[in-house]
């Protein structure tokens, strides 16, 4: 990788060049695999009914549930994109996802059947939609997310009047429960706005979503904007395509999975953790630059 004094318009140089807007695409992660969470909801509901139904629910294969969820989610997204924006409520959008997930997984799980699970679905759906997917029961903050946001808030509160303001937001392919979920995770107070794909009617990597975020932040059309995320195809490609700076927070394994050719095609920087972001924004330390057709004019260290 390279290390540059000015890499992809990244972060250094003090107030004169600090981004006017920083948005995050990823601040939390599931507390367990989707299959584990779905099985947990079904089993809890089954025990309210009978021992026989509990036995059937316990037979659900967690890997089958995870695979079925991915397929059901993709199908629903094709049918009604952006969590049903303009077509139905988020809750109505999620109903077929949950039903198809359990039906497909039941077919792949020995000792279980769709007929046995069907009476459990209303209760399991209520648990998943209103509790598990909407609270700490299903989500936890990613490492260093809380500290990073707290540090940004502290800097903004203490900044001298001569320092330009820094807006902070969340831009996510998510439904309309996201603001309250962030509140329940304890971080909503640190961001100026939350923009979801359902609200906007478009999703990352669309440049339109990033344009909407810029408008919500109230920053100038030529202001520097930085998006931080863990999805190369959505966060990095989307931000770069919208003329933003892109910071890919990922492990070495995740970078390897993307592939060198794809990484080199999109100008971005990367960190393995959010922990260094406050220092980068306020102290001018540089992340590693990755890819892009426009290389820094400053000297760079040879690739390792």
Q: Which descriptors would you attach to this protein?
A:
alpha/beta, 15 helices, 304 residues, 7-stranded mixed sheet, disordered C terminus, single chain, disordered N terminus, 47% helix
Structural write-up:
By secondary structure, the protein is of the alpha/beta class. It is 47% helix and 12% strand. The chain contains 15 helices and nine strands. The chain has helices at residues 34-49, 51-58, 62-79, 81-84, 90-107, 114-117, 121-130, 145-158, 178-184, 197-200, 207-217, 232-241, 252-258, 260-265, 277-283, and strands spanning 21-24, 28-30, 139-141, 167-172, 193-196, 225-229, 245-249, 268-271, 288-290. A seven-stranded mixed β-sheet has the order 5-4-1-6-7-8-9. It has a two-stranded antiparallel ribbon with strand order 2-3. Helix 12 links the parallel strand 6 (225-229) and strand 7 (245-249). Residues 1-9, 283-287 and 293-304 have low confidence and may be disordered.
The proportion of strand residues reads 5-15%
Low-pLDDT runs of 5+ residues are: 1-9, 283-287, 293-304
Give the radius of gyration.
22 Å
Class from secondary-structure proportions: alpha/beta
CA-based shape: elongated
